[in-house]
Amino acid sequence: MDLNELYSEVILEHSQDKSNKRELDPYTLEERGHNPSCGDDITLRLDIEDGIIKDAAYTGIGCAISQASTSIMCDQIRGLTVEEAYKKLDLFINMIRGEEKDDEKLEEELEEGYVFKNISTMPARVKCAVLAWHTLKNAIDEGKSLKENE
Asked: Model pTM?
């Protein structure tokens, strides 16, 4: 099996995995992400306690790439501090933009998220892959804003 087949298999597997695609209750943050150009639409819910993401889940519809990216992201941020999750999302976005090229670091830090490394060669699919990560950023930023206003 070549590397592209392996990556395709990981994306297919995660797009069909329902363990992260579920209602999360209770939750402390909720954010909707929508890609009008292709119809991807997710609602991300996070349960954050003492600065740690205890659980993450999503609901919604979308292509295999958006669903797989969201599922992989949920797996990866669960158990991290909010700051660690923010660093991971920055690394993912920088990888997609081609700004981070250290393959060893990317593979180690992003684990299965690394399968999206070459998505930048398919401009129409970039928005699909980053939707969940931008939604996470918005949720975290919103959560920080809410705390500052308390």
From this structure: 0.91
